Automatic annotation (TrEMBL):
The lineage of its organism: Bacteria, Pseudomonadati, Spirochaetota, Spirochaetia, Spirochaetales. The modification ADP-ribosylarginine is found at R100. It comes from Leadbettera azotonutricia (strain ATCC BAA-888 / DSM 13862 / ZAS-9). The gene is nifH_1. GO terms for molecular function: 4 iron, 4 sulfur cluster binding; ATP binding; metal ion binding; nitrogenase activity. ATP binds at G12, K13, G14, G15, I16, G17, K18, S19. Its cofactor is [4Fe-4S] cluster. This is Nitrogenase iron protein. PROSITE patterns: NIFH_FRXC_1, NIFH_FRXC_2, NIFH_FRXC_3.
Length: 292
């Protein structure tokens, strides 16, 4: 039986709002009527917290350390609106590769044919950072994910991580690896932030999937241990996450990006830095950036 589920990997620099975005995406897809599994691939094991009222769940690796054999159902927990929640986990602190949890968990689920059994519409992998570890590259390298999206703000280090991800996708694109669906632009509250993201996706030959503003609503909901979709379903922010879910559900054509070289990225960022300085000092008016 072929896997029916549309498998998606969401990457992004730590602290960029990746798990917040992923959980709200899962929640919004579930409200649209889809059967969803969120697969947390961060060793901190906190991807699915807001789908389960702020509670942690046993991880695949922790459970395997306690038992020689594990039934995958023992590490699957129901969350908001029936979303299946899984945390891959990581090694004991200071020991082993942080990506080992992804490799082990994915292999366990494949062997026991869990995705087929649950008849899922979506499996969403929430993956840490850029591709610096073989484990974190698994959803891309092995072609497990059909489509990859990255969450990024307009900050340089977030874009640096996104560009590194693009390099990983490009590397594996000719050997059956996953391709890039686009950038989910997070914390976009200023016009210049949108301009920077728009220019970045243009020079790397990709696209913005959705612009997500920074909102106190998200903070209020997360302090309650919930997603915005659950705790503030009528808010403007929930409408943005629903729009993102609709766009991803309609997405079919992912591509190989064109990452910048290290010096190219530095030069590109430097031009934007000079532009913003001139904007701040009043040398130029607050208008769209020139062709930099």
């Amino acid at each position: 039986m072929a896997i029916k589920a549309k498998q998606i990997a969401i990457y992004g620099k730590g602290g960029i709002g990746k798990s917040t975005t992923t959980s709200n995406l899962s929640a919004a897809l579930s409200k649209l009527g889809y059967k969803v599994m969120q697969f947390g691939c961060d060793p901190k094991s906190d991807s699915t917290n807001t789908l389960r009222d702020g509670t942690y769940i046993p991880t695949v690796l922790d459970t395997l350390r306690e038992k020689n054999q594990v039934n995958a159902h023992d590490v699957i927990f129901k969350g908001f609106n029936g979303i299946y929640c899984v945390e891959a986990g990581g090694p004991s602190p200071g020991v082993g590769c942080a990506g080992r949890g992804i490799i082990t968990a994915v292999e366990l689920f494949k062997q026991q044919r869990i995705f087929e059994e649950l008849d899922l519409d979506y499996v969403i992998y929430d993956v840490l950072g850029d591709v610096v570890c073989g484990g974190f590259a698994v959803p891309i390298r092995e072609g497990i994910a059909e489509h990859v999206f990255t969450v990024s703000s307009a900050d340089f280090m977030a874009l640096y991580a996104a560009n590194n991800l693009f390099k990983g996708i490009q590397k594996y694109s000719n050997s059956g690896g996953a391709l890039l669906g686009g950038v989910i632009a997070n914390s976009i509250n200023q016009p210049y932030s949108k301009e920077i993201i728009d220019d970045f996706v243009e020079v790397t030959k990709t696209q913005v999937v959705e612009y997500i503003p920074r909102s106190v609503t998200v903070t209020q909901c997360e302090l309650q241990g919930k997603t915005t979709i659950e705790a503030a379903p009528d808010s403007a922010q929930a409408k943005v996450y629903t729009s993102l879910a609709e766009k991803i559900s309609n997405h079919t054509n992912s591509k190989t990006p064109a990452p910048l070289g290290v010096q190219e990225l530095r030069d590109w960022a430097s031009k934007w830095g000079k532009y913003l300085l001139a904007l701040q000092t009043g040398e130029i008016r607050n208008e769209l950036a020139p062709n930099i």
